UniProtKB/TrEMBL annotation:
Annotated Circularly permuted ATP-grasp type domain residues: 76-452
Species: Wenzhouxiangella limi
Designated name of the protein: Circularly permuted type 2 ATP-grasp protein
Length: 481
């Protein structure tokens, strides 16, 4: 197939001179050897494989909700092992510092006392949980599973766009994407040295097991889900199945008078050692948070504070999952680790600072404005693509609550070749690697590459119509070029 592929942005597979990057050469050569009919057939095979696997996500709208298949593109995103090793080290550094930061905030708050992190920013945090003060989780780790979103700018620099430390999702799609590609392109996995991702469920179980308060070779671990109507329910069920643990809802668990957690089973009650919770803090325990919650477990916070059960991620970890806090992460790294960040932040203006607020209001047509705690692409303004009415509305929102907003430049986010219809066209992408922290750290080899399926769109979130690709970390074995 003769592809006339061209991108006006930094491209993940194609270099500035129009040829494939070193790590992508063999893949590019193989894909171009397929004619248009063969390529479309392979895509249909990918769609069937994904459908059989049941890869879906739930979208909520005014009329209700619906399960949708995750759009999948068969042209992989490829990263060289050399670049990935630098990125992995930067992610480990970042999550280490963030866990030290969270631990400090619920302890002595030295970073606040030393004037590195403003007290008013902490006071305005909607995710700081007073109920967690004085708790010291095992290993000092609060965010056991983190998904940090990475984007590449026009000059090739890789930035951290945001950190997801509450209940990050998407890893099941990363793993299923790999299985789909292996079924559809088995010959490529024989010819190219692609680093595996299949060990993630085992790594996740080991991380969770390390949090057990009871010494045991095989502690009782469960995945706590809000239920089948949650947008990520597929992932909750899939991960529980892959780890060989029980998927439970709040009604399946009770806390006894000795602050131990038990699970109802057909054989009676069984003590639970670790809970991988996929429920937001507010709904986790009606005794500690929202009294009207029907999703959580009464007394769960009491059991956790008493050290009778491990919770991942720990309640309160979301204090660092805040886009205003994000802007301080370089300072947080320097404060706790005495190191410069290995992977930089996107330049960010804090609307809570008067001079930066004035800059944002004066240049809102050029900036991306984000609320501090929204996710999924909701509640943000992309200035260059917004109408004057939308920009004026956001100015009012920002002025009314400046602590709740940050702004960033509109990056020329990198693209990746994507099969659109029967043509190959550039589409913008980001990358969400997953970092596990317990008795040791682990970073997925690559991550979930999300794709903005609409031409020109910068929004990659599945809830906004985005899709995904398999991400290949390729060892080029010293190939020149």
């Amino acid at each position: 197939m003769d592809w006339c592929y061209r991108s006006d942005f930094c491209d993940e597979l194609i270099g500035p001179r129009g040829g494939p990057r070193v790590a992508a050469r063999r893949v590019w050569k193989y894909l171009r050897s397929l004619d248009r009919h063969e390529l479309v057939e392979r895509r249909e095979a990918c769609e069937i494989a994904a459908l059989v696997a049941g890869i879906t996500f739930r979208v909520y709208h005014d009329e209700g909700s619906a399960d949708r298949a995750m759009p999948f593109d068969l042209i992989p995103r490829i990263i060289s092992l050399r670049e990935w090793e630098r990125t992995r080290a930067g992610l480990e550094q970042r999550v280490t510092a963030l866990n030290l930061f969270i631990d400090d905030l619920y302890g002595d708050q030295k970073i606040v006392a030393d004037g590195v992190f403003p007290a008013d920013v902490l006071a305005g945090s909607v995710n700081f949980r007073e109920q967690c003060r004085g708790v010291r989780p095992r290993y000092g780790v609060w965010a056991h599973i983190c998904g940090s979103d990475l984007v590449r700018d026009a000059d090739g620099t890789l930035y951290v766009l945001e950190d997801n430390l509450r209940v990050p999702s998407g890893v099941s799609y990363m793993l299923e994407n790999r299985q789909v590609m292996k079924k559809v392109f088995p010959e490529l996995f024989e010819d190219i040295d692609i680093l595996p991702v299949d060990d993630y469920p085992a790594r996740l179980f080991d991380t969770l097991a390390s949090l057990s308060p009871r010494p045991a070779d095989y502690p009782v671990v469960v995945v706590l889900t809000p239920g089948m109507f949650n947008s990520a329910y597929f992932e909750h069920a899939w991960l529980a199945q892959q780890m060989g643990v029980e998927l439970v809802e709040g009604r399946d668990l009770i806390v006894d008078d000795h602050d131990c957690v038990f699970m109802r089973t057909i054989h009676g009650f069984e003590q639970v050692d670790v809970i991988y919770r996929r429920i937001d803090d507010a709904f986790l325990d009606p005794d500690a948070f929202r009294e009207d919650s029907l999703l959580g477990v009464k007394g769960l916070m009491r059991a956790w504070r008493a050290g009778r059960v491990g919770l991942a991620n720990a309640p309160g970890a979301g204090v660092a999952d805040d886009k205003v806090v994000y802007s301080y992460v370089p300072d947080i790294i320097r404060y706790y680790l005495d190191q410069d960040p290995l992977v930089p932040n996107v330049p960010t203006w804090r609307c809570s600072i008067r001079s930066e607020l004035d800059h944002v209001l004066a240049n809102i047509d050029q900036l991306v404005v984000k609320p501090a705690n929204e996710s999924g692409g909701y509640g943000m303004l992309i200035g260059p693509h917004a109408t004057r009415k939308e920009r004026d509305r956001f100015k009012k929102l920002i002025k009314a609550d400046p602590r709740n907003y940050i702004a960033q430049p509109t990056l020329a986010i990198s693209t990746c070749p994507t099969l659109v219809g029967a043509q190959v066209a550039p589409r913008h992408v980001d990358l969400r690697p997953f970092i596990l922290s317990g008795d040791q750290q682990y970073v997925t080899t690559g991550g979930l590459t999300r794709v903005a399926m609409r031409a020109g769109s910068l929004v990659v979130n599945s809830s906004q119509g985005g899709g995904s690709k398999d991400t290949w970390i390729v060892d080029t074995n010293g190939e020149a070029g």
